[in-house]
Design a protein that fits this description.
Layout lengths: L1 H22 L22 E4 L7 H13 L3 E8 L5 E5 L8 E7 L8 H18 L3 E7 L1 H13 L7 E8 L14 H8 L11 E8 L11 H5 L2 H4 L5 E8 L5 H4 L1 H12 L5
Helix pairs in contact: 3-4
Length: 273
């Protein structure tokens, strides 16, 4: 018994390090397998942003599928280390091939998503400064979506950032306050920053949420936390749409083939003028 307890810390630490190593195994940049006649190609990159506890596996399957199907292809990985430093890997020659950028956070188990707000804003500023990116799309799951919304509403008006073209939210809990309980201070911050939304910005936010049979939740995020985004964008020039996907759990929102087809259609088959 004593010997078993002696080795337990080593096993736990070894398992954690192995998990961290495997979770950072993002797929390599890859070319398009083919070009489709039903897809609009451009140089506008699409960022894929994971949620709480997310890792490379969150979007590896989607990235492979998009390249195979001819929708877009991965060009860069942006990894944010524990100190908030940005690390870019890949070779992006700016061409009209719907480039994809995979975002990874070394510290993905944060207490809230406020660090991700700062990290995403820094990533966008770096993309504009170093790659000349003037517009971007994003696909963001769970807290990654909440962070993307905050970055856009609070900082999207800044000249050093590219403009949002399309933001696809997947089960993003925008307001986590409880009825009769404490308010969500992050949501109140969003409400107070509505005036930052540019009056002439014609981007689009598509808010996708799932539900399980007979329940107003995807198993992790209740519907009312997702749809709380409506009053934030109401009255702005942003095009806002909600899409309900029945019989879909929180993890399936980013991992199921039916969702991959929906994401591809929302981003590249209906590009704004």
């Amino acid at each position: 018994m004593t010997l078993k307890w002696h080795w337990l810390p080593t096993i736990v630490v070894g398992g954690w390090l192995s998990y961290r190593w495997v979770s950072r195994l993002a797929i390599a940049p890859q070319p398009l397998a083919r070009r489709r006649t039903d897809v609009a190609y451009s140089t506008v990159p699409t960022l894929l942003i994971p949620g709480w506890g997310g890792h490379a596996w969150t979007y590896n399957g989607l990235l492979r599928w998009l390249a195979q199907q001819g929708y877009g292809h991965k060009v860069l990985t942006v990894r944010v280390d524990w100190r908030g430093g940005l690390h870019f890997a890949g070779d992006w020659s700016v061409t009209e091939t719907n480039p994809l950028i995979q975002v990874l956070f070394d510290h993905s188990l944060t207490r809230d998503y406020q660090p991700q707000v700062s990290w995403l804003t820094a990533i966008l500023a770096a993309l504009k400064a170093h790659y000349g990116v003037t517009a971007y799309n994003a696909v963001a799951h769970s807290w990654g979506g909440s962070a993307a919304v905050h970055s856009f509403v609070l900082h999207g008006h800044r000249s050093e950032l590219p403009q949002l073209r399309r933001l696809i939210l997947l089960g993003a809990p925008v307001n986590e306050g409880k009825v009769g309980g404490p308010v969500d201070t992050a949501y109140e911050r969003l409400r107070a920053a509505k005036h930052h939304l540019p009056a002439n910005h014609h981007g689009a936010v598509i808010n996708v949420y799932g539900t399980l049979s007979g329940r107003l939740t995807d198993g992790s995020v209740p519907v009312h936390q997702v749809t709380a985004l409506r009053p934030i964008l109401a009255g702005s020039a942003i095009t806002y749409q909600e899409i309900h996907v029945p019989a879909t759990s929180h993890s399936q929102l980013h991992a199921s083939p039916k969702m991959w087809r929906l994401i591809a259609s929302l981003i590249w088959r209906q590009l704004p003028k």
